[in-house]
Design brief:
By secondary structure, the chain is mainly β. It has one helix and eleven strands.
Length: about 160
């Protein structure tokens, strides 16, 4: 082969590798294992006929400075993985996607659910004028005019 054909062949391989990495930058999968203490999770990615499980990948938090959050993903949660290079070695779990298994906690366009875990729920409504804390059958509603408590038993100290 001539020098030009060797260079063209090498360029073709490099272009194919770049295209593969671009396709692999963002992936969607399901969490299969969580190490909450280390901030890592493993994700099953279904690509083609052969699903595979990633190594341990860190998940991103809304805050990790003076204000800190701890929101570990749960097994079965659908997540988006991002890697700038397209290599899972430098990937992070960027966020969660609702699914049939883990649906949205509200269908209302004017309700912002800040947390919904088991029977516990924190929601903001009324354009930010009301906060409702609910655990099972107990509710605390706070707005500018009042605080409303509803529960089987209320203890005030």
């Amino acid at each position: 082969m001539s020098g030009l054909s060797v260079q063209l062949e090498a360029m073709g391989r490099r272009i194919a590798d770049i295209e593969r990495r671009l396709r692999s930058q963002t992936r969607v999968g399901k969490v299969v294992e969580v190490n909450a203490a280390e901030g890592l999770a493993r994700v099953q990615i279904n690509e083609g006929d052969q699903p595979f499980v990633t190594g341990w990948i860190p998940w991103e938090e809304p805050a990790a400075g003076a204000n800190k959050t701890h929101n570990p993903p749960s097994v079965g949660q659908q997540v988006r993985i991002f890697s700038e290079t397209g290599d899972l070695a430098d990937a992070s779990i960027q966020g969660s996607l609702n699914s049939a298994v883990n649906g949205r906690p509200s269908a209302a366009g004017d309700e912002f659910v800040m947390a919904a875990v088991g029977e516990a729920r924190i929601a903001i409504t009324g354009g930010g004028s009301e906060i409702t804390l609910t655990v099972g059958g107990s509710t605390v509603t706070i707005n500018s005019a009042s605080i409303s408590l509803s529960a089987a038993r209320i203890d005030l100290n």
